[in-house]
Amino acid sequence: MIKNIKDTTVGQIAKELSDLRNEEGATTTSRVLTLVILADKGHSKLAVEAALKASYEHPSRIIVHVGYGEDHEDRLDARLYLGGDAGAAELVILRGYGSASVPTESLISGLLLPDSPIVVWWPHSVPQNPAEHSIGRIAQRRITDSARSYDPESALEALSSCYADGDTDLAWIRLTLWRIQIAAVFDQLQPSPVKKVTVWGSAKSPSVVLLGGWLGSRLDADVHLKTTAADRGLFRVELEREDGTVTIHRPGKKIATISSPGSPDQQISLPVRSLADCLAEELRRLDPDEVYGEVLRSCVYNERMVIEHDDQLTPEKSADYTEVFDA
C-alpha cells in the first residue's frame, strides 16, 4: 500500500501510518527498531533498496530523509509504504524543503517507534561528528559509509578524531569475511612471527586502510599498502612470516586462493558482500564496536604504515568492477 502526502506535517504522517495499519488489519506494530536514513539528494535509491532487504531479518520502521535545499519555501512531502512494496518494514520517505531540508531530532521525533532502538545511517556523506549530530545523539547506533563519501581518505581521518561508542562504518563491515578467513589461516599454521603485512587495493577504498590497520595492530607488524587507481577495492593480502609468505588473492568477486608455506594452494569462497548484507550485519548488534574504534584510531598517522601508490598496478578482472568500495 502506497500513500503520497503533499505539504504535510509529522503529526499528519503519523496519523496516516496508523490509518494504513488499520486498513491492513494490523492494530499494533511488530517492528523491532527505527532505522533513520539521512540521504543526499540523488543518492537514496540504493540505500532504500538495501534497507528493505535487511528488514526481512530486522523488521523496522524506515524513515528516509532527503533534503532539497534551504533556499526553497518551507515544505514537507511524504510517501508512505506499508505491506507488499515495503517488505517487512514500514517505509516513510520524507522530502524536505526550506527549513525541513535539514534533518533534526525535532523533525522526525514524532515518527520514531516508542521504546525501541534507533539506528541512523548516512549512506553517502559523512557528518563532521556523527555522535554530535542532532539525530546521532539519540541513536544507539550510528552508521557511516566512508567509501561512498566525496573524499574517503578525509572522511576516515575525521571519523578517527571523533569516534564514540555506537559509531561504525560499512567500510569496516565489508571486511568481515576477509577477517574470518585470515584468522582461519592462522589456526592452520604453526606459530611464527609476522614481519610484514602487505595489502593491495584501490587508493580510494577505506577498507584497504582498515584491514592494514587491523592486521598491523594484531600482529605487531609493519604494514605496506599497495594502492592502485583501478576501480575495485581489496584484492590481495600477503603476510610475510619467518617460515614463508602467506597469500590470500581474490582476482574476481567470489573465489580467493590461499597460498601458504608447505601446503598446496586452496580455493575458498570469499564473495563481495552486498550493501544489504552489510547493513543487516550492522543491525544485528547495537553494542559498541570496540575493535573498530581501536583499528580506526590506529590507522591514522600510523608510523608503521606505508602507502605505495602505483597507477600501473592493475589487478586481474578489474574490468568487472564498477565500485571501488567493494571489499
UniProtKB/TrEMBL annotation:
<dbReference type="InterPro" id="IPR046801">
    <property type="entry name" value="OpcA_G6PD_N"/>
</dbReference>
<feature type="domain" description="Glucose-6-phosphate dehydrogenase assembly protein OpcA C-terminal">
    <location>
        <begin position="166"/>
        <end position="296"/>
    </location>
</feature>
<feature type="domain" description="Glucose-6-phosphate dehydrogenase assembly protein OpcA N-terminal">
    <location>
        <begin position="53"/>
        <end position="160"/>
    </location>
</feature>
<dbReference type="Pfam" id="PF20171">
    <property type="entry name" value="OpcA_G6PD_C"/>
</dbReference>
<dbReference type="InterPro" id="IPR046802">
    <property type="entry name" value="OpcA_G6PD_C"/>
</dbReference>
<protein>
    <submittedName>
        <fullName>Glucose-6-phosphate dehydrogenase assembly protein OpcA</fullName>
    </submittedName>
</protein>
<dbReference type="InterPro" id="IPR004555">
    <property type="entry name" value="G6PDH_assembly_OpcA"/>
</dbReference>
<dbReference type="Pfam" id="PF10128">
    <property type="entry name" value="OpcA_G6PD_assem"/>
</dbReference>
